[in-house]
Amino acid sequence: MLAESVARLLDAKKAKDVTIVDIKGKTIIADYFVIASASSTTAVRALVDYVCEELEKRNIPACHRDVDPKWAAIDLGGVIMHVFYDELREFYSIERLWADGTNIKRFKDAD
Q1: CATH code reported for the domain at 2-110
Q2: Cα–Cα dist 100/22, whole Å
């Protein structure tokens, strides 16, 4: 599953609090959000670049990488990857907006 692959890539590069949110049936924009945090704006960019480069090696369509330094939302088709600067993730609290308690998994729990 693409969402788990993205989560593994983020985890491999030490992203914090990697979470997969199943949003199937709640919206038409995607089936999953993969959400992660980074401790600096440089780390946000590095995580996005790493994941996009690795996915391109696997022939998954190229990512659009024009990202905000504090929040990158990358559309990968059925998966949207969100990488937040720590404080911004708390502020927007996307998990709270989209999760109903049964559709959210911390990446470490998804294995």
Answers
A1: 3.30.460.10
A2: 10
